[in-house]
Structure formats: C-alpha cells, structure tokens
Amino acid sequence: MSRNRKYCWLTLALASSAGALEQPYQAISQTKLQQWQGEGFFTLNKEWFSNHDGSGFDANGQSLAAQLSEFSYSYLLFASQEIPLPRVRYRLRLWRYPAQSIQSPALSRIELSRFNLGPMLHKQLVLELGEAHVAPLQEFGEGPHISWRFDLINLYGAPHVVAASRRQFGDEQASAEDCLGYSCLTITLSPPQAMPDKPLDLPIWQAPYRLQHGVSEPWLLDTLYHTLTLANLEPGDLPDKPLLEILLSTNVEGNDPVWHALARQTQLGDDSLSESWRELWVWPGGEVALFGYDLCHPDRQSDCQPKAD
C-alpha cells in the first residue's frame, strides 16, 4: 500500500468540514504572508487551504487535527498531495510569531521539504558495485525535490491552514540547501556530538494514526515534538531563525526499511542552554531508540547544567 493511501483515511477526514467555520486569515498581515510565499513558491488559492482547515472529527467526536502536532498535520497534508518516493529525506522547520491582537492570532510557519535521495544512492552503489549488480534507477525512486510552506493558526484547539504554497527544484539547488550543517543530499548524517549510550524514554500520547499504522512518519515527527515539549513553546527572540529543525530520512541507510531522524531546537528560553538535540532510530522489525542531549551557551559553561539524557 502506498504511503499516500496509507494515510488517506485521516487526510480526508482532516479535509472534511463539520460546519462552515469562519477562517480568520483575513486578519493575518498580508505583507507577512507575501514575504513568506516568495523564492519560487507557487501560492495555492484560498479554496485549497480553506478545505484543509482541520475540522474533521473521529468516531468519538474529537477533532482529528487537535490530536496532531503542527509537524504531523503538515506532513499528512503533504502526503495527501504528493506521489510517494521510497528513499527520501524530509526537512521540517518551525517558526512562531506572537499574536498582534485579538483579531490577528499567533502564527506558526512550517516549511516541509522532501529531498529525493534515490538517484544519489543509485549513483553511489553503481560506483561501488558496478551497474550489473544494482537495481534500475526506477526502483530507487525518480521525482523532483519539493518544498511546501504552511501558515497555521490555532483555532478551537486544532491547527488550521491560512496559507499554503509549493515549489519544485533541481539537484543543484537541493545540494546547496542546508540540513543541520550538511548538504541536504548527503547520505549519512550525524549530530555535532556523539549521543549518550543510554536511550531516552519514549513519550506516551494518543494519536489517531498510531493504532492503525504503528511506527510511521507522523508518529516519528510527533515523538520528537513531544520529547522537545514544543506544544507551549513561545515565539523566539530571533524571528528569522527556526525554533526547530527536524531531518527525517526514510530508507536511506542500507537495504532494509530504516528511519533516522535528527532534531535541533534553539531559542530554548533558558539563559544557560543554547540548543537541544535529539536523534531517533527505527530499525527493521520496529525497534525504536531515542537519544538526546543539551548544549550550554559558550559563555555559561561554568554554571550550566545540561541534561546529558
């Protein structure tokens, strides 16, 4: 079953409307939205994002979108629109902006990019093993690199899309894109410091996709979201710098299905801490391991108490 179809039941429910909810995107600064929708992005019309307002409900009458983080919600919208590819890296970045007034609510911005690593992996294996010993390129996945940008507000406890845009780009630009200090087409990624040997406990929460699909991209994104306690994170002091960046690589490490995620959170609201890092692995068979550590500000090394989790 393709990943598009795998999440179809939830995505359609998110797109369905339980009633004509008024969308307050008119109150969002249009200049702010236009600045975000630049750099080659094609802005989708209002009919698209007003139909993806997250107002679907589950069998118990609970809002489906309210059970999702901003990241898994954005991923599900992305997956509902794009053709799946087998070997990819997702990069998700989060910005938050405070409310300007009662009529202009707080705004979250998600940039979700998907880099197709299939051709790069195919080329690497051909060089190492010879073309006769490597599967055809088509089996590694052929398709463009894609970015989506979502402007989200919280309405009745659930994320609602107020603007969305999309672009495609080629290998040259993808190679120049930064993924936590690496080129986004780099095959193997690692954190700046080695992770502690002892894994963290996985957060526990109820998610509408968890029981049906087990480990999946949305579940992995929400695992990082909950372990980094982003739900109540305030807008940072550096509005142009993402509060959080997540890299999620799918089927890139070896032949067996493996997920590998790196996450960096900045602007932690702690004078002594500068960054929080998490690394998440899912190996064949479904074994999950989560690791993490915090970094001190360079000028606060003497009195800093980082959590070497």
What distinguishing features does this structure have?
309 residues, signal, globular, two-stranded antiparallel sheet
Biggest sheet, spatial arrangement of strands: 1-5-4-3-2-8-9-10-11
Rg from C-alpha positions? 20 Å
Shape, per Cα inertia axes: globular
Q: Element order, helices and strands?
A: HHHEHHEEHHEEHEEHHEEEE
> Total strand count, please?
11
Q: Write down the domain tally.
A: 1
- The average pLDDT score comes to 75
Helix percent reads: 10-25%
- Class from secondary-structure proportions: alpha+beta
Gap from first CA to last CA: 37 Å
Identify low-pLDDT runs.
1-29
Q: Main β-sheet: number of strands, strand sense, barrel status?
A: 9 strands, antiparallel
Number of continuous helical runs: 10
Taken as a percent bin, the fraction of beta residues is 25-35%
Signal peptide: 1-20
Keywords: Signal
